[in-house]
Amino acid sequence: MRERISCETKQAMRDKARERLSTLRLIGAAIKDRDIAARSDGNFDGVSDTEILSVLAKMIKQRVDSVKVYEEAGRLELAEKERAEISVIEDFLPKQLNEDEVRAAVQKAITDTGAASIRDMGKVMGALKASYAGQMDFGKAGGEVKELLG
Fold first, then answer.
1. How far is Cα of residue 94 from the mean position of the Cα atoms in its chain?
2. Same domain, 106 and 81
3. pLDDT tens, 43-89?
4. Do 32 and 57 share a domain, yes or no?
5. Dihedrals phi, psi of 115, to nearest 5 degrees
6. Is the pLDDT assigned to residue 141 strictly greater than 80?
7. How far apart, in whole angstroms, are the C-alpha atoms of residue 124 and residue 9?
8. What is the DSSP secondary-structure string of 58-103?
9. How far apart are the C-alpha atoms of 133 and 93, rounded to whole Å?
10. Number of domains in the chain
């Protein structure tokens, strides 16, 4: 994953794609920040691809929230810039699951963890995050888990 981001950054430099390059540098900085935090915990190898996916998912969530705020404030040019960043970041994420696939994944996680009540939601969400990092919106998945366990 790191190699791909590095190659894409170099290519954006060659292509003089300023907006794409800017977003790729933000991705690199976010990963580097997570690496530094991991080093303080004793992990000197850097973060895994799974953790990189969670960093990317978090970056997308932040930008989606920003788009809403900018649109409400009438700052459409800033909202458009955030949307462009989202599309660059999404290039590095695996295919997103649709609603039916999310429901099936939630049901499988409930079965696999043996969850019987809403008190087991943490186990189910942990299993989903381990298996589907970057592939689903865990906020929506949490609602699905509540519905099925509640």
1. 10
2. no
3. 777 888 888 988 998 999 899 999 999 999 999 999 999 999 999 99
4. yes
5. -65, 135
6. yes
7. 36
8. HHHHHHHHHHHHHHHTT-HHHHHHHHHHHHHHHTTSPPPP-HHHHH
9. 9
10. 2
